[in-house]
Amino acid sequence: MSTSVIALGTSRVGYETKGYFRSLDAVFFTFLFPVIMLAIFTAAFSGTGDIVPAPGAEGVSFGRYFLPGMLAAGLLLSGVQNLAVDIATEKGDGTLKRLGGTPLSPVSYFLGKMGQVFVTGTLQAALLLVVASVAFGIELPTDPGSWLTFAWVFVLGITTSALLGIALSALPRSGKSATAVVIPIVLVLQFISGVYLQFSQLPEWMQNVASLFPLKWMAQGMRAALLPEDFAALEQNGTWDLGWVAIWLVVWLVVGLVISRLTFRWIRRDA
């Protein structure tokens, strides 16, 4: 990869980030949505008592239990939903066709989009953690090991989500249909992957289906980082399975990269 390609991609990160925050619907549905959902969950279930993984084990509040899932959902929304809709819209309105006539290469374009996702995803996660701690009194880990786990799950998860978002942008036939195609996929994944429902209480077949997709593993990795060790007993195999978290995210990262390179075009196929 040449220096000029990297330089062009880096220069687009600021442009893409500014464009993101100028779009109020994108900010609400991909940036603020996890924060709002955490507030609703914390307020709605504040009087129901703690979630306890086993008799005699340390319990946590509903807000603390669902915080990791909200963080994982934020990665999915920032990467998959945001980029899939955004790129499909740019194809539909002719933006990509115009960019195709400039020195900008697809790789530089990808780097700009992925950089924007990394910046906004980092800001979103930081906001979510601050709101959880300050506004709702949710206890966060204090040991470095937990934050190291959080860091690598976050970086791997946001990169995978960004590449899958680029790949999924090829599915909608037009910019107008992008939200109708992408949002249901993202919403279903959130419900079956332990974001809004306790994963251990889902039917086994649904857990098995969710295990084929990256969001389940991102949520599990976040729970491993932010919840007490006793909560590993509630996972599908009774352990955090961090090795499998890494493997599945890398697999989906490669899938997203390959599909992105095979399907990305500056213009629509039917144009």
TrEMBL record:
One of its GO terms (cellular component) is ATP-binding cassette (ABC) transporter complex. Residues 25-263 form the ABC transmembrane type-2 domain. This is ABC transporter permease subunit. It comes from Agromyces agglutinans. The chain crosses the membrane at residues 26-45, 65-88, 117-138, 150-171, 178-199, 242-264. GO terms for molecular function: ABC-type transporter activity. It comes from the Bacteria. Keywords: Antibiotic resistance, Membrane, Transmembrane, Transmembrane helix. Pfam families: ABC2_membrane_3 (PF12698). It is a multi-pass membrane protein. Its main location: membrane. It is found in: Membrane. One of its GO terms (biological process) is response to antibiotic. The keyword Transmembrane helix applies.
